[in-house]
Structures are given as structure tokens and as C-alpha cells.
Amino acid sequence: MNRLDRYIARRYLANCIALFVVLFAFVVGIDVFLNLRRFIQAARDLDPDGSSLKIVAATGLAVIDLWGPRLLQLFSYLSGLVIVMAAGFTAASMVRKRELVAALASGVSLHRLSAPMAMAAVLVLAAQAANQEFFLPRVAHLLPRDAKDIGKRKLETFRVTLLRDGAGRLWNATTFEPSEQRLTNVAIWERDSSGYITRRIAADEAIWEGTAWRLIGGIAERPGASNQREVVERIETDLEPTVILVRQVAGFGQSLSWRQINAALSQRDFPIDKTTRDRLNRIRFGRVAIMLSNLCVLLIAIPFFFSRTPVNMASRSFRVAPLIAIAMIGSVIGVMSPLPGLPVWLAVFFPPLVLAPIAIAALSSMKT
User: Fold this and answer.
1) Do 168 and 51 fall into the same domain?
2) Please, are residues 169 and 196 in contact by the beta-carbon 8 Å criterion?
């Protein structure tokens, strides 16, 4: 890599960092503006007797505590957009300062000048992959927090929403406490083979006892027979606390690492239904596919930004913006949509396979 390559790559990475900072500040600023009262109240709850200065400082710390983990997630979401925008800003600066013309006059082709950008973009995508594998999974449990949860390092309880057990029952609970293996405000719907509800069970609490849930205040009633109630004290099911935890982990699928998803899929204590298995496989293989698609979108956009002569970059940007938006949105939809007849690990790579020939054609058509 010569001096010109290092110069272009350094300018490109500087623009990437600047764009991340601007976008992060924009998103966090809007949220703080809309929910400032909630942040102030959370700061007062942490220090009720604090002075005004302490409340201001605590409010700032509350924003950092809530949005710190979220920025890691936002980094993964914005990486594809940033690498394309940074290419546009870098090329515009080089065109405006006539640096591109000088490089062409020295015999360097546009294809050669675009190589440092592509390599720097690969570094940004590698940082995204590292963030997804090593940093984001460590804070995944903090992402669902709200202003009322500021200061908590972990969520000790969570809601159980319509989980199905092996007998076809649907379980719902206001809270689940993993440490105590207890459900509160439990509702259970028993169904027949056609899916119709045959009995509804409500209980104040349910405590796991090895093979069954012991219900406290459990009452069952059948549809159309509200006056005929029966007491239910125990329900045997395969929906044990470990199963509930793993299914909750599956709900954090977008924030889990490849290793964690593999661990969830390799559980032998209970079978994971095909829908959940396909979704987790689509998430882990889809990450690679989306990064490849973003790189292809960058290569498609570069010919619009690089020109042998000074051009109006604003008009070029307006021309390429719809194409970039369609390609990126289409990539996400294509990765998350199943293709009949193809295994999940192969179907997710359909968008980059479509974009790769377009990228090659775009680079080949660049006049240099």
C-alpha cells in the first residue's frame, strides 16, 4: 500500500467515524428530547435528595447508562449505510480539491483509486462482525431496558408471552423469575387437536417442582360454563424453566453471537420447533449475507462518485440514492424471507448473489 492508498483509506475511515458520531448524536438527541422528563425522573429516583447540579449530572449519566448498550446495536445497523455515505463524502472531497484529476494525470486508474475505499470498508465490516460476536452479546440483556430500569445491570425478570408446550397448551405470565423458578399471574389455555380452547386455567403463581408447575390459587373453567370452576394444583409439562430461558434467548436472536446461537440450537433437553430453528439459522447466516450485500452496494455506488472530470456531486448523489436504498432494503427483505425448496443457509445468500454481478458490471463500466 503506497502513500496515496494510505491517504485515501485514512480519509475514508475518518469520514466513517464522523458519520457514526453524527448519526449517533442525532438518534440519541431525538430520544432525549422526547423523553427528557423520564430521564430526569429516573435521575431523581436514584438520588431523591440531590441538588439541582447533581440531578443534571445524574440525568447525563442516565442517558449514558441507557444508550451505551444501544449504540453497539445501532453500530451494527448503520454500518452498511455509513460505508456508502463515507465513499460519497471522500470522493466529493477529492473531486472538489482536484486530487482525483491529479491522480489520474499521474497514470493511476479510477479502479486503483477505489481499491483503498473497498479495503477500508472491509475493515469497518470486520469491526461490525467483532462487535456482533464479542461486545453486543454481553449487553443483549440490557437492550430492552426503559428509563425506569436505568441503573440495573441485569433484568432479573421478564414477561412470558404465549409459549407453547408439548401438549399444545399456551402459557402466559406477567413475570418469570429464573432464580426462583416462579411465574406470577399465570394464564394457561388448553386446546384440542384442532386448536380450539377447551379449558382456561388462571393462577396467582406457579412454582417449578422438577416435573410440573405447582399452581397457587389455580382455577380452571371451560368455555360456556363459567359457573363450573375447578381447582387445579399441579400441571405436568415439558415447559420447564430452562426451556423458557432458551426461548427468551431466542427472542434476543439479533443480539446473540454465532456461538450462542449454536448453543441454543444444540440443546438436547428439548426440541426447538422448526420455525424457531429456521429463524435462528437465518439470523446467523444472514449476518454474513448482509455484510456481503453491503460491500456489493458500495462497489455499485463507487462509479457514481468517481469521475475523470469535476462533476456536480449533488446530482450524482440524488441519482444513486434510490438505487442504494432499493438494494439495501431489498437485501434485508431477501435475507429474512424464506425461499421454497432451498435450505436456510443457502437461501440467505440470494441477495449478494444477485448484487455481485451488478457490482462487477458497474465497476467494469467505469470510464478511466
Assistant:
1) no
2) no
> Are 73 and 136 spatial neighbours (Cβ–Cβ below 8 Å)?
yes
Total domains, the chain: 2
The conformation of residue 105, written as its DSSP 8-state character, comes to H
In terms of pTM, does the model score above 0.90? no
Residue reference for cell 457514526: 20
Is there a single domain that holds both residue 24 and residue 126? yes
Domain that holds residue 173: 158-251
For residue 195, give the 3-state DSSP assignment: coil
Rounded Cα gap, residues 265 and 270, in angstroms: 10
- How confident is the model over 257-284, as pLDDT tens digits? 888 777 667 765 555 667 778 888 888 8
Q: Which long-range contacts (CB under 8 A, 24 or more apart) does 300-304 make?
A: 300/324, 300/327, 300/355, 300/358, 300/359, 300/362, 301/84, 301/87, 301/88, 302/87, 302/91, 302/114, 302/117, 302/118, 302/362, 302/363, 302/366, 303/362, 303/363, 303/365, 303/366
**Alpha carbons 234 and 215: distance in angstroms, whole number:** 6
Contact 297, 327 (CB under 8 A): yes
